[in-house]
Structures are given as structure tokens and as C-alpha cells.
UniProtKB/TrEMBL annotation:
Protein name: HTH-type transcriptional regulator DmlR
Pfam family, one: HTH_1
GO biological process: DNA-templated transcription
Gene giving rise to this polypeptide: dmlR_4
Gene Ontology MF, one: DNA-binding transcription factor activity
Lineage: Bacteria, Pseudomonadati, Pseudomonadota, Alphaproteobacteria, Rhodobacterales
InterPro entries per record: LysR-type_TF_proteobact-type, LysR_HTH_N, LysR_subst-bd, WH-like_DNA-bd_sf, WH_DNA-bd_sf
UniProt keyword list: DNA-binding, Transcription, Transcription regulation
UniProt organism field: Planktotalea frisia
Domain HTH lysR-type: residue ranges: 3-60
């Protein structure tokens, strides 16, 4: 039975990665071995499971029929592993590897410290953070769970709101010095703006400058971290997460009465993963940690703006 499941696991890797090399990276085995295992499974079943195309390995009709059964087996094996792994541990420790996808702002300024706390409490746990300037594809198992800035409405997914967070316009004092005074939104036209590349905004919630009527972005990137560092270098004005500001205490928020944005983070998981207690326990700690970290960092921002006696 173990060999049969191992072959199904390889089948799932190829179905999701659409190539032997991608499946090898997912499974941490060499592509040649992946190919042999797929051939063995096809021989056992007596039919081809994939068709080679210019796009890679596409499921055959038989492969498409096998896919939901293989995914069901994956969930069953995961649940069994959870049960065996938690016996004698009172269900408290988390072990193994968990991959989480997130937009790079969250991945850079929240997840490192939150995940550091979780692994410190669970020494047998490996956490992999996938920082992408796009939506993580859970259906292809790019990650076990993902943080998003919009709640998805399609697919077999469970969605949990993590937390609201705030964003403001910010710049360095060196940039602001000697430039036109900022009194209202109309004054933005006299300043160099930093933001997203307009045609690479992957979620409407990230179109901050468009909502402010800004038509030109002289310095743009698809990465919020690149934008943040450009603002730190005094290159211009840009929208910054409040939770990122403690990492750059030299930055100053401006036009706060005119520009104060609120967005939300959501935790997205496969619906079938609700049976996996290991992922459930990790999700609980992740949610609590992110909420606490956003509150801590935004409180720091508020204290910096408070008048000093």
C-alpha cells in the first residue's frame, strides 16, 4: 500500500507541476525517478495518465478521472499522519513542512517574526514562506495555505479574515525638504510618486494611487518591498503599510487626514484540509500571531505621531 500511495504522490506532483522537473522540485526527487514512477503507475493501471504537449504534461482522460481519487488518498494519508504524529504529544506540537504563500509586503514585514515565534515553539516544524507579487495558486499546491488581500469567491476553498491593516502616504524628510508643500491631494501632482506598475497590479485592492487620481508613476515596481526601499532612499512619495514603518523610522506619514487606507488580509486554505489537525493548529497560531503583530506595529506608529509632552 505504501508503494501505491508513493506512486500516487508522484502522479499528483506531475499533475500539479505539469512537468517532470517541476514535480521533482515539489517532491525533492530527481526528474528521471519521477518519470520512472509515472511509467510504473501507468503500467500498473494499464493506461496512459499524461499526454506530452508543448505546455508540458497534460492529464489524459484517465488521468483526469484519477486526479480526485488521488487527492482523496492524499487527504486520508495526511489525516493518518496527523493522528500518528500527535499521539503522546497531547496534540500540541507541529512537525513536518508547511508552505505558506503571501504577498511580499506581508511576507517581508509580518511573517518572519510571526513564523520565528511558531518554529521556536515547534522545533520539528519547517516553515517555507513563498513571497509572490501575485495570487498563489493553491489548486496546483504551490502552497499549503495562502494569505491574500481579497477573499476569493471561486474554488473549493475556506476563507478566514485575518485582520484589517492601515496604509498611509509616506516619504523621507530629505525628500520633502525644499519641495512644494503638501496641503491637499491636489499637491500630489507636483511630487514624484512611487507605486505599482499599473498593468501588473494583480488585485484591485492594491490600486492605491489610481484611487487617488494619480495618473503617472515615475518610479514603479511590481514588488511592494522595492517600492518601500525606493521611498526610504528619498526617491519620492508612496503608499506604505503602517506595519512596515517601524522598519524605517526615518519615514514620515503625510496628508494623513486626506489619505488613510484600510485593507484586509485573508487566510485561504483547501476545504479538504480542514480535517488535517496539523494544519489547523498551525493556522490558529498564524492567525493569532499576525493579528498581534499588526496591532503591535500599528501602535508603534500611533505613538510616534502622538504629541510629546
Amino acid at each position: 500500500m505504501a508503494d501505491n500511495w508513493d506512486d500516487l504522490r508522484v502522479f499528483l506532483g506531475v499533475a500539479r507541476g505539469q512537468s517532470l522537473s517541476a514535480a521533482g522540485r515539489i517532491l525533492k526527487i530527481d526528474p528521471a525517478t519521477v518519470g520512472r514512477r509515472v511509467a510504473r503507475l501507468e503500467h500498473t493501471i494499464g493506461t496512459a495518465l499524461f499526454a506530452k504537449s508543448p505546455l508540458g504534461y497534460e492529464l489524459s482522460a484517465a488521468g483526469a478521472r484519477l486526479l480526485p481519487l488521488a487527492e482523496q488518498a492524499e487527504q486520508t494519508m495526511g489525516a493518518a499522519s496527523d493522528l500518528l504524529g500527535t499521539q503522546g504529544l497531547a496534540g500540541q506540537d507541529i512537525s513536518g513542512s508547511i508552505r505558506i504563500g503571501a504577498p511580499d509586503g506581508c511576507a517581508n514585514f509580518l511573517l518572519p517574526q510571526v513564523c520565528a515565534q511558531i518554529v521556536a515553539q515547534n522545533p520539528e516544524l519547517d516553515i517555507q514562506i513563498v513571497a509572490l507579487p501575485r495570487v498563489v495558486n493553491l489548486s496546483k499546491r504551490e502552497a499549503d495555505m495562502a494569505i491574500t488581500v481579497s477573499a476569493p469567491t471561486a474554488g473549493r476553498l475556506t476563507v478566514q479574515k485575518l485582520s484589517d491593516y492601515k496604509l498611509h502616504l509616506a516619504a523621507t524628510p530629505s525628500y520633502l525638504q525644499g519641495r512644494p508643500e503638501l496641503k491637499s491631494l491636489a499637491d500630489l501632482s507636483q511630487h514624484r510618486m512611487i507605486g505599482y506598475i499599473p498593468d501588473m497590479i494583480f488585485d484591485k485592492e492594491l490600486d492605491y494611487l489610481g484611487a487617488l487620481g494619480v495618473e503617472r508613476v515615475p518610479l514603479a515596481s511590481n514588488s511592494v518591498s522595492v517600492q518601500f526601499n525606493a521611498i526610504r532612499q528619498g526617491a519620492g512619495l508612496g503608499i506604505v503599510h503602517d506595519f512596515a514603518l517601524p522598519a524605517a523610522p526615518e519615514l514620515r506619514r503625510v496628508l494623513m487626514s486626506d489619505i488613510s487606507l484600510t485593507r484586509s488580509f485573508y487566510l485561504v486554505r483547501h476545504s479538504s484540509d480542514r480535517r488535517l489537525q496539523r494544519l489547523n493548529r498551525f493556522a490558529e497560531r498564524l492567525v493569532a500571531g499576525i493579528r498581534a503583530e499588526i496591532a503591535r506595529l500599528e501602535t508603534w506608529c500611533a505613538q510616534q505621531d502622538a504629541p510629546h509632552a
